[in-house]
Amino acid sequence: MNQIDVPSPPKPETEVSSLFRLLGTAHELEALVEAELALLGLSLAKVGVLRMLVEADEPVALSDLAERNCCVRSNITQLVDRLEADGLVRRVSDPEDRRVRRAELTGAGRTLIGQGLRVVAEQEESVAKMLTRDEAAALARVLERLSR
Question: Could you name the CATH architecture of 43-147?
Answer without folding.
Answer: Orthogonal Bundle (1.10)
